[in-house]
Design a protein that fits this description.
- The protein has 422 residues and is of the alpha/beta class.
- 30% of the residues lie in helices and 19% in strands.
- It is built from 16 helices and 14 strands.
- It has helices spanning 9-12, 16-19, 37-47, 63-66, 101-108, 134-137, 178-181, 235-248, 265-274, 281-285, 290-295, 300-309, 338-343, 350-361, 366-377, 385-395; strands spanning 25-33, 50-57, 71-74, 97-100, 125-129, 147-150, 167-172, 198-204, 213-218, 221-224, 314-322, 328-336, 400-402, 408-410.
- Strands 2-1-3-4-10-9-8-5-7-6 form a 10-stranded mixed β-sheet, sandwiched between helices. A two-stranded antiparallel sheet has the order 11-12.
- The two termini are 34 Å apart.
- Residues 5-19, 78-83 and 414-422 have low confidence and may be disordered.
Length: 422
C-alpha cells in the first residue's frame, strides 16, 4: 500500500486503546483520496480526532488495506469510470465506509445501491435532520435547524415542497460556496427508507425533490453528501462528520438487502400529483401504464385520483420501450396490481399472504390468489399448503414488504441494526 505523504508513520502505528485517554475517538480510520490540499485537510481532521489515521491514494485502495482499519473514508477528486477501484464489491467489502460527496459517490456509481448519489447537489444545508440520531448527538452535539435559506425553485414542484414559503429553516454543514456545493451530492429519497438496511439521517436542501438524502446509510456504507473539506465545514458540520465516522463503524458486516432498486409507490404518488399541473403533466403521464388512463377516459385529473385511491395496490415493473433515437431502452412503469384489486387486498400487507393461503385452501379465486402470493414472497413452495403455512408462520413476524426490492417481502437473515446500543 502506498501511503499518502501527509500520513505520519507514528500516527499509523498508534494503538487505539492508548489514545482514548487523550480524548480521541478509539477507532482507526483510513482516508482514500487524491494527493492534494484536500487530502491534507482530511488528514489534519482525522489524526487530531481519531486514535489511528492512515492514508492511501484512492486508485491504489484494495480490500486488504481496508480490512486493517475500523472505517474507510472514500473521497478524492473526480474519478473517471476507467480509474475506479474495480474490486470494490459492496457485497464483500470488509470495512464500514463513509463516502464523501460527489467524488466519493462516483466511485460507487454503477454499484446498484440505493445510495446512488446521483441526485442534485446540496448547497451545504439540510432542511430535515434527526437531532437525536447518533450522527448529530454522539459523541459530539450541536446540530440544529438554526439558519435560514431560500427555497430553490424546483423544490416547490414536488408535493412535499408545494407549501414551502420563500425560506426554510436549515442546518448548515458548510457555507454555500460554489466550489463546495459542486462537490456535494444526494441520493434518491423516494423509497430509500423502505428496506431495513437503509436509514435517512438528513434531507438536503436541493433544487429538486425535498426528500433527497444528503446523509444516509445502506448496510455498512454511509453517504456524507456535503462537498466541503473539514476545514470549511461549520463547527456543527465537523462534529457531525466525526459522529458519522464513529457511527458507521457499528455496521461492520451489516447486510445490503436491496440492490438494483425499483421505484417505490411514494414516487408514483408524487408523479400522480404532477398530473394535476399542466406544465408537469406530460412527463408524469409517461410514468404510468396506459391502462390507468384508459380506465378514466384519458382524464389526467381522474387518473391522479385513481392512482391515489389505489395506493395499496400500486406496483412498478421494468419495461423495454423505444427511445427517442429509435433504440430499445429500459424504463419503469407504475401500474395497479389487478389481482390484489380484485381480491380487495393490499399488496404490501402481511395479512394479504394469510388471505391468499385461505382462498387457495377454500378453492376460491385460486389463480388470482396464487399469482399474488408468488409475486409477494418470491418463492414457490409447491401445491402442499401445509408447507406454505409452516414457511409463512415462521417468517411473518419479521417480514418486511419492500417496494424497491421488486414489490415483495424481504425476510432478512441478519439484523441490520447497529452492533452497539444507540
Amino acid at each position: 500500500m502506498t501511503r499518502l505523504p501527509f500520513v505520519l508513520a507514528a500516527i499509523v502505528a498508534v494503538v487505539p486503546a492508548q489514545r482514548a485517554a487523550d480524548g480521541l475517538v478509539p477507532l482507526s480510520v483510513l482516508y482514500a483520496g487524491a494527493h492534494d490540499a484536500r487530502a491534507d485537510d482530511f488528514s489534519q481532521f482525522l489524526r487530531t480526532r481519531f486514535a489511528k489515521a492512515g492514508g492511501i491514494r484512492l486508485a491504489e485502495l484494495q480490500a486488504s488495506d481496508a480490512a486493517r482499519y475500523d472505517v474507510v473514508v472514500v473521497d478524492g477528486a473526480a474519478v473517471a469510470a476507467s480509474s475506479r477501484p474495480a474490486f470494490l464489491d459492496p457485497a464483500t467489502w470488509p470495512t464500514p465506509t463513509v463516502v464523501v460527496g460527489a467524488p466519493g459517490g462516483r466511485v460507487f456509481a454503477g454499484r446498484r445501491l440505493k445510495l446512488d448519489m446521483n441526485g442534485p447537489p446540496t448547497a451545504g444545508a439540510a432542511h430535515l435532520i434527526v437531532p437525536a440520531h447518533p450522527v448529530f448527538a454522539e459523541p459530539k452535539t450541536g446540530a440544529a435547524l438554526d439558519d435560514v435559506a431560500p427555497v430553490p425553485p424546483k423544490f416547490r414542484t414536488w408535493p412535499e415542497g408545494a407549501a414551502a414559503g420563500e425560506t426554510l429553516r436549515v442546518w448548515r454543514a458548510h457555507a454555500d460556496a460554489p466550489e463546495d456545493a459542486a462537490l456535494g451530492a444526494t441520493s434518491e429519497g423516494f423509497g430509500f427508507h423502505d428496506s431495513p438496511d437503509c436509514e435517512v439521517i438528513a434531507r438536503g436542501l436541493v433544487d429538486g425533490a425535498p426528500n433527497a438524502v444528503v446523509v444516509g446509510r445502506q448496510g455498512p456504507f454511509l453517504h456524507w453528501g456535503f462537498g466541503a473539506p473539514p476545514s470549511r465545514l461549520t463547527p456543527s458540520g465537523r462534529a457531525a462528520l466525526l459522529n458519522a465516522i464513529a457511527y458507521v463503524a457499528r455496521f461492520k458486516g451489516a447486510p445490503i438487502l436491496v440492490t438494483d432498486p425499483v421505484p417505490s409507490r411514494d414516487l408514483a404518488l408524487a408523479f400522480a400529483a404532477r398530473l394535476r399541473d399542466p406544465a408537469l403533466r406530460d412527463d408524469a403521464r409517461r410514468r404510468f401504464a396506459p391502462a390507468i388512463f384508459e380506465e378514466v377516459g384519458g382524464d389526467p385529473l381522474l387518473a391522479a385520483d385513481l392512482i391515489a385511491g389505489e395506493v395499496e395496490r400500486l406496483r412498478c415493473d421494468r419495461m423495454t420501450v423505444v427511445g427517442a433515437d429509435g433504440a430499445p431502452c429500459e424504463t419503469f412503469v407504475f401500474s395497479i396490481d389487478e389481482d390484489a384489486r380484485a381480491l380487495g387486498l393490499s399488496n404490501r400487507a402481511p395479512e394479504a399472504i394469510d388471505a391468499c393461503l385461505n382462498l387457495i385452501g377454500h378453492r376460491e379465486e385460486v389463480d388470482r390468489a396464487h399469482r399474488l402470493l408468488l409475486r409477494s414472497v418470491g418463492v414457490d413452495l409447491g401445491p402442499d399448503l401445509r408447507h406454505w403455512h409452516a414457511w409463512w408462520n415462521a417468517r411473518k413476524l419479521d417480514a418486511r414488504f419492500c417496494d424497491t426490492a421488486g414489490y415483495h417481502f424481504l425476510f432478512p437473515v441478519a439484523d441490520s441494526r447497529p452492533a452497539a446500543p444507540r
